[in-house]
Amino acid sequence: VKSCYEYEESASTTFPSELYTQGEEPVILLIDDDTSFLMYMKEKLEKIGWYVVAIANPQKAITSFYDVRPDCVVIDIHMKEANGFEVLGFLKEKLKQQFIPTIMVSVDNSKVVRIKSYEMGADDFIQKPFDLDEFIARVKRQLERKRHIDEVLLVDELTHVYNRKYLKQAYALMQNEWKRLGEPFCLAILDLDHFKQVNDRYGHLVGDIVLRKFAELLRQGTRMSDIVVRFGGEEFVILFSKTKIQEAYEVANRLREQFERYPFQEEGATFSCTFSCGVVEVTDGDAPFEHWLRLADSALYEAKQKGRNRVVS
Ligand code: GH3
Ligand code: MG
Ligand code: MG
Ligand code: MG
Predict the structure, then answer these.
(1) What is the CA radius of gyration of the chain?
(2) Which of 29, 61, 139, 225 has the fewest beta carbons under 10 Å from its own?
(3) Does the C-beta of 234 come closer than 6 Å to ligand 1?
(4) Maximum distance among all alpha carbons in the chain?
(5) Start and end of every Response regulatory domain (predicted)?
């Protein structure tokens, strides 16, 4: 599965649409070289309301992974073009920041294969051929686990980006990289402009739609390794990993231009929204998170003072 590593660079720069934009139904990614099995499963699982992406080519599965953003991945172990364990290894390596349950399936039910599945981090192993009802029950269980873990631990319910609880953890990781390897990183605070007016004019539900769109745009416009957090109400924080201030400023400004242009169409009205942003580079690996937050916050304050819809670094 060599090509998956080559893909990494481009994958991270074209971050895909959030899975949640595909609707609320769970997204299941099936990776199996047996196309008739895939067609059968797709039909059965879509009947119960799941969105199924079935891919026969493991290389393609890996590259499309970023676009699909599945809630559960089912991987056949024995495939012509690659070993399912390689696919699993890739997913585990690249997705440390997210929890996406994986289920290995195989006709080979040997102890070695089962143990290897769990040791490599798979959440379940199912022998083929299997009973469809049992398969569905076991995938359902994994979907419940994912929802639980996302909601309780890391992910903001409304916008599906990370919540505040995760931010400190992520900061500690980047701080560590700064100390060990001298990797620079930046912290940005973003606050929607006159957001109260959006709520007042169009209602709270439309306000929520704006928040979701905003979060989606932030995810799409940043790299996989960057961390987007809903910090509170209509304030978001981005940690730009391995990034110097100049680049972080440029990314934030590009996001600003994109958001400003986005035409919201709600309640019979078309309107646009803007945000202001303060961004700082972390230049002292020992200073606590709050220190940089304060600095970014005063840059944000300056952006608001200067007339909003701008980035200040
Ligand atoms: P400013 O440009 O100075 O930031 O103006 P603002 O109106 O955005 O100012 P402020 O920060 O005081 O207002 C934030 C508003 O965001 C107030 C609150 O009603 C709204 N808000 C916070 N959380 C949510 C939410 O989850 N959903 C919706 N719809 N609105 C929210
Ligand atoms: Mg096979
Ligand atoms: Mg605010
Ligand atoms: Mg605001």
Answers:
(1) 21
(2) 225
(3) yes
(4) 67
(5) 27-143
